[in-house]
Amino acid sequence: MFRPQIRVLDCTVRDGGLMNEWQFDDDFVRAVYNACVEAGVDYMEVGYRTSEKYFSRKENGPWKFCFEEDVRRIVGDNNTPLKLSVMADIGRVDYEDFLPASESVFDMVRVACYVHQMDKAVATAEHCLDKGYEVTINLMAVSKVMERDLDEALDDVAKSRVPTLYIVDSFGAMYCEQVEALAKKYHAALPGRTIGFHGHNNRQLAFANTIEAIIHNCNMLDGSLLGVGRGAGNCPLECLMSFLKNPKFRVRPLVKAIQDKLIPLSKQIAWGYHIPYLIGGVMNEHPRSAMAWMESDRRDDILAFYDSVVTDDTLA
Amino acid sequence: MFRPQIRVLDCTVRDGGLMNEWQFDDDFVRAVYNACVEAGVDYMEVGYRTSEKYFSRKENGPWKFCFEEDVRRIVGDNNTPLKLSVMADIGRVDYEDFLPASESVFDMVRVACYVHQMDKAVATAEHCLDKGYEVTINLMAVSKVMERDLDEALDDVAKSRVPTLYIVDSFGAMYCEQVEALAKKYHAALPGRTIGFHGHNNRQLAFANTIEAIIHNCNMLDGSLLGVGRGAGNCPLECLMSFLKNPKFRVRPLVKAIQDKLIPLSKQIAWGYHIPYLIGGVMNEHPRSAMAWMESDRRDDILAFYDSVVTDDTLA
Description:
Chain A is α/β, with parallel strands linked by helices. Chain A has helices spanning 12-16, 26-39, 68-75, 118-130, 147-159, 176-189, 206-215, 237-243, 252-266, 275-282, 288-295, 302-309, and strands spanning 7-10, 43-48, 83-89, 108-113, 134-139, 164-168, 194-198, 220-223.
């Protein structure tokens, strides 16, 4: 599948950090960065942007904040074709947390919001545009949004200067026909804008849904090494990059980083396909209860988790 | 996705046995059987049918042979709605290995063949039809078959009395658009017949490809508990059953069997998504070299495996 407009974003550290409070050491982040540069990845999302006003640095590693000096310790001035992205959660970030882009190591800000926060997300995104950043809005948990509210949110984006909107399957609940329907809806509401896709792997469909998004003209695609990310994780970047035929992409550097860093990490953190995450995805639920179960000593008692979640005959 | 014609086949023991020479103890097979009965699965494939003329019982467990007495030890006369299936590989089975269906514990024979064996497969399938069995032909490794040869094979099936033909993605090489194209081709060549789908999970697409097959009117669908099967394994039965909306299906018995039997097994055998299997799938290769690598002590040296397989710039 070759289409020159396609851009790939690595979210290994940002989404993976949801599993370890962003306690990746510099070597890990450097290995991911080097792999992205060598593989021809378009963007690497280093983490979240927030401040100590909202979160403690004792409990959260540096990639929860992405202070410029921490990132520059890894990438210097990032004199590479790889662009760096940072995610900003509405309600957990302030305008003054962003330097002018010309003074920042970052190229792009992705503004994450729930549907009721879309007005604030547009304002934050336009603030970052005015500071010189590339900008996206990532509308999370769309599998729980009523059509009337989604239409209004799309209208808000249409009226804005925001160039890119993401379809985000936060709960790993969707399958291909739902991705197709949303891609068509987003494109119809936002002619000429870029639509992105960010999946989760609860039902082992993150990569497949990303392919479906590609087929339906989504051009910003997220993946993470070995699929590391919250709960069941994301679309594995190595699956996505080995599928895309763009000659600028190389897979070998990803395999090296997986061997050096992700396989060891996988022995410490249980992301990926596990039955509690599947059940959460099927039930279209936030992964928090499945993650708590997986971190408890009842982790292997998946039948008890099933019985705690499936209280009607939905899954019988 | 509800369509009353859909039939689900569990191949946990048959395909999983490719990873342990069918050395499942009776308790394991009984747990899978009970789960299938309680979950409303349509068919359980207990194993292969072959004889000691072809394979040693020293090296292979009972489910490589599926002698009637071994199976009856688990299921008695199988007085349940679950039908039992056995797979016959062309070249490794003889006509006299099949009792008349009225005397057998089995309801269905699935004849597996490569494209050059289609004539023999049709003859074997019709022999089994005449003995009273339900019959399918599973044309393996279709991702390596030239279109001219596939057309001839489809024509052979069209001229036969064989009611069901499977699309088999033996190497886990395919993605949705290829499944769609094959489903349309098989249906066009075989109007009115049943088309089945059996996927492998090298690229994390086995379940997604099964959904694609459903969308394109394939009605016989294979899955295995926790996806156990050769190499990267199969479509996870629990994903498939929790996707299908047919009220006759129940998921909880599958979760119980996974907890009791599959999770313990997963600590002994490394099926599922691993980078060597991904590389094999992308390269459209038989999984034997990736399996040998995974069983060796170089298992975690995935970069060396990559370099041993990718000798040109295909994956760069």
